[in-house]
Design brief:
38% of the residues lie in helices and 18% in strands. By secondary structure, the protein is an alpha/beta fold. α10 packs parallel to α12. The two termini are 35 Å apart.
Amino acid sequence: MLLPLGGATVIETVFSRITQSKLVDNYVLAIPNTPDSDVFVPLARDRAMSVVRGSEDDVTGRISAAVRTAAPGADCIARVNCDNPLVMPEVVDDAIQELVNTGADLITPFENSTLPFGYGAVVMTRACLETIDHEAGDVLYREHVENFCFDHPEQFNIRYQQATPENWASELCLTLDTELDYLRLTRLSRLIKGTPLSEQASTLIKKILKTETAVIVQSNDAKMTLNSNTSRRFPGLRVESAPASRNAIDRAQLIIAGSALNIPPSSSAPLGVIVADTHTIGERGHFCFRYGNGDCDPHGDNIFVDDSPQAAYSDVDDFLISQLPWLLPAFMAGNVRSIDLSERRAKRAKRIVGVSP
């Protein structure tokens, strides 16, 4: 939380962004009563925020205590996580307004997400929080507050916040858990430096999707198919059949290849060289994406592994055509964390089947 980001620390960046909300009346920092959290107290009080402390393992209890002691008149609570340093206050305001307008108990931008992960916050009524605090005794629910509602949907009116068309990018992960996340967030915060806060949500997505990217495939048929599936959404994308032109490679911030053999010697790109490849799990072959240049991959591991057997695709080009269109935003954001393709497919299928409007 004290790492530098955008001219301040991560936690100060969250404070400065969320306090520009137009609908939040009172801000409370609910932190553990552990010595390593002492450093956050003066940072909050410098901004006239109340500070409430409680058990490190009982997030639900801390938030409930914060409302009772520092915001006793609150009817609606927005739970903003400080590991989401690019939180967008207008997205949080939209959730608050929707909660009020619809009479819902809780609205979440995280489950069945269509927004980038980290843009929004869970918003709930005071009554909803009190019910959770009173009835949820399981350790899971004391740490992950709203999970009690998801596991007991018959008790709550739950809504899933839907992104506006310009903010639709559920593939983007903008939360801070790992070193890779920090590297990605540092780069992305620079992309929106100087942009008015009210315009940052859509501007960041546009800039990411315009990333100059060279995709190298084996056949002209694969080139035409990928172009038709991606050209409208990704204006910076160039799909070429091997061998790729030196001009396309030199211009690219990111290179994605259907085979390591398709990458010209000595090729490099600021966001790395990603290769679609095959590997073996047990006795079965699988397709995966990995960084093809050790200098671009801090951990040297495959970063995308498809749990489907290799027989699900005819070749690497087929794998690229199937997976790349919806993975491109995550690739273009840079410093990609490991992604479970089977889990992502399940989430996407759940959204397609339908959720509450």
